[in-house]
Amino acid sequence: MKSSTGNILFIILIAVALFAALFYAVSQSMRSGTGNTVKETATINSSVLSQYTASTRASVQRMVTENNDILALQFNQPNNFGSLTSPSVGIFHPNGGGIIYQAGQSNLMDGAASNPSGQWVYSFNFEVDNIGTSLSSNLGGNDLIAFLIGIKRDVCLQANNRLGVITVPIPTINSNVYGSDMLTNLNTYYVDDNYVFPPTENIIGAGVSGYTDTALSGKAEGCYFESVSGNYVYYAVIAER
């Protein structure tokens, strides 16, 4: 009896151990699967950003080819078409660029950040280091850039990974001029019928004044963390100059 009881107890212990091992393996597999799904979703979402800015870039190039001055183009949204100096210079106007205006989709945006509605900012206030002429003495090197402020961190990370930007850590810019300030001062930064060119340029990717954004040098697209406002910001050069 003692031998039989001991064998049964030993079998029970083995069964418990096997069950624990199986539970651990399944749980790890589920975690891994969830992680991969999140990563794949973020990668797909980041691709949506590139597709939208690519269509905008193509429209701008076509308008410039048709003898429009790039500095005269205007990004007035549909609810502000009436303020365009001419429909022909409106990027989103059917008689201009014909691009359908789209805000950043909710699955791209961090609802707790500064821009849950997905407002894009199109601006000539900046240039990307080693893109275009990169002039530092005047505004001739300022690029036309699209910014989407307040995207999700995972989307930012996978965008940089897909674009070949060093992602660990995510490049950081420590200045409001590259972050929420663009949203709170749209009249200054947004290229519409009231836009006035800035007196100085701001260079992304130069790695000056404590910035850690040198990984963005020469990158026409990328994402950075704006440490003052706490936003992850995607940018894409629409036209290098």
Summarize the topology.
Blueprint: H1 2-65, E1 120-128, E2 143-151, H2 153-163, E3 172-173, H3 181-184, H4 186-189, E4 202-204, E5 221-226, E6 231-239
Parallel strand pairs: 1-4, 3-5
Antiparallel strand pairs: 1-2, 2-6, 5-6
In short:
This protein has 241 residues and is of the alpha/beta class.
Q: Helix amount, in percent?
A: 25-40%
* Major β-sheet annotation: 6 strands, mixed
Count of β-strands: 6
Q: Mean of the pLDDT scores?
A: 81
Compressed to H and E, one letter per element, the order equals HEEHEHHEEE
| Estimated share of beta-strand residues | 15-25%
Question: What gyration radius follows from the Cα positions, in whole Å?
Answer: 25 Å
The first-to-last residue Cα distance is 90 Å
Side by side, the strands of the main sheet go: 3-5-6-2-1-4
Unreliable segments of 5+ consecutive residues: none
Overall tally of domains: 1
Task: Figure out the total of helices.
Answer: 4
Q: What overall form do the CA principal axes indicate?
A: globular
Q: Helices and strands: which structural class?
A: alpha/beta
Explain the overall architecture.
A 6-stranded mixed beta sheet has the order 3-5-6-2-1-4, covered by helices on one side. With 241 residues, the chain is of the alpha/beta class. 37% of the residues are buried. The chain has helices at 2-65, 153-163, 181-184, 186-189; strands spanning 120-128, 143-151, 172-173, 202-204, 221-226, 231-239. The chain contains 4 helices and 6 strands. The chain starts with a helix and ends with a strand. It has one domain (43-239).
